[in-house]
Amino acid sequence: MAVTQIQFLPFHRASIDEQDIESVVRVLRSGWLTTGNEVRQFEGAFARYVGARNAVALSSCTAALHLALAAIGLQEGDEVILPTMTFSSTSEVVLYFKARPILVDCQANSFQADPMAMERAITSRTRAIIVVHFAGIPADIETILDIARRHKLIVIEDAAHALPTRYKGKMIGTFGDITCFSFYATKTITTGEGGMMTTENAEVADRVRMLSMHGISKDAYKRYTAEGSWRYEILDVGYKYNMTDIQAALGLAQLAKCEAMQARRDAIATRYSSALSSLDAFECPVTPSHVTHAWHLYVIQVNPSALRISRDTVIEELKQRGIGTSVHFIPLHLHPLYQKALGYRSGEFPVAERRFERALSLPIYAAMSEEDTDRVIDALHDIAREYRR
Ligand SMILES: Cc1ncc(COP(=O)(O)O)c(C=O)c1O
To answer: Model pTM?
Structure first.
């Protein structure tokens, strides 16, 4: 079957409606494009939504993670514990400080980091733990917070996948000391590119806001308005990590639809799980009853004892059938940087490696129809039949 003859179902397509477009156009017509009132409103609405005291809008989740480490005063030679099963951002920010990311393996039968491995990795140089809520399912946050408290460590949550995610009914955004969200184009809500940091600590929020604007005094963003003053002071070495009003207007419109878009993802996940559970070729994700899954990703495991082809060939077969997929993630310790510069080796984290080799992320997004979902299901049934062992 040639790919050109059928409509390609992409791995992701953003859900942008007329309200989103009107919100952005309103800002474009307003005469003020960069950080201003829209950003302040977005921060307020986001903080209320996740139940946090403070929210700071930034240019990305990576920027939020970087400034989180700057705000805690991470130093050269410090260690930060984080999962090997994550995206580059979670760890590269540690390297910005010439500090060392200490990688840990996944829990058995899970993509989440193993809290016991985290505890074993603690040394006198450990400053912080970065928790990743993989795919939008919360990590074992209570156990990790307990370990961190006992060892006096800071907990930063990489919640790039976790909006809206609830752990025992409470929204992710206030468990750790600092939480970092992403509004990258594929996330549950998007601003194209963008991020948000939440924290209960107002001093941290003020410092992050200052660092995100070249390290200049607090209300720098107001300096061209009637309320502000031209005079400013540079207080620290800062960065250019602020969010624009164009992005924030889109973020506000998207935030209003966050629950509805998650419900749509949830319905797709339910349909996938019920239609695929009869196949032993694929293992579906399991959601514990005490959590709400954001369903940023729906990651299945390809079972080599039931299928004659590898995960990579399943990807090719799906592509032939006009379906886009992805893989999350290549564990960090398998990348050249981590092996050459930090001495990690293949084979070091066997659970993550085994899960990576079998992982396959299916399309899941609010703009997908039931027919789209059924196309993916039918294609997987077809592949399972054709290549059964
Ligand atoms: C786990 C994780 N953390 C951080 C990020 C970085 O997010 P951003 O693109 O907003 O910087 C991503 C990106 O997808 C991610 O998957």
So the answer is: 0.96
**HEC letters along 309-357:** CCHHHHHHHHHHCCECCECCCCCHHHCHHHHHCCCCCCCCCHHHHHHHH
What's the one-letter identity of residue 239?
A: Y
CA 227–ligand 1 middle distance (angstroms): 35
Strand, coil or helix: what is 217? coil
Residue 108's SS3 state is coil
Q: Which residues of 352-385 are buried (b: 16+ CB within 10 A; e: fewer)?
A: bbebbebbbbbbbbbebeeebbebbbebbbebbe
Contact 181, 162 (CB under 8 A): yes
CB 208 within 8 A of CB 67: yes
The one-letter code for the residue type at 332 is L
C-alpha–C-alpha distance, residues 385 and 373, integer Å: 19
For residue 62, how far is its CA from the centre of ligand 1 (angstroms)? 6
Q: Is 156 in the pocket of ligand 1 (CB under 6 A)?
A: no
In whole angstroms, give the CA distance from residue 358 to residue 299: 10
Which residue of the set 152, 168, 170, 187 is catalytic? 187
Omega cis (within 30) before 164: yes
pLDDT digits (tens, 9 = 90+) for 112-124: 999 999 999 999 9
Task: Kindly give the pairing relationship between strand 195-199 and strand 291-292.
Answer: unpaired
Residues 6+ positions from 74 with CB-CB distance below 8 Å: 80, 94, 97, 99, 127, 128
Catalytic site includes residue 187: yes
* 163-187 pLDDT, tens digit each: 999 999 999 999 999 999 999 999 9
Residues making up the chain, counted from first to last:
389
Alpha-carbon Rg for the chain in angstroms:
22
- Tell which one of 60, 62, 132, 330 to mutate to probe ligand 1, the residue whose CB is within 8 A of the most ligand atoms: 62
Query: Whose alpha carbon is nearest atom 8 of ligand 1?
Result: 61
- Sequence letter at residue 204: V
Spatial separation of the C-alpha atoms in residues 295 and 162, rounded to whole Å? 8
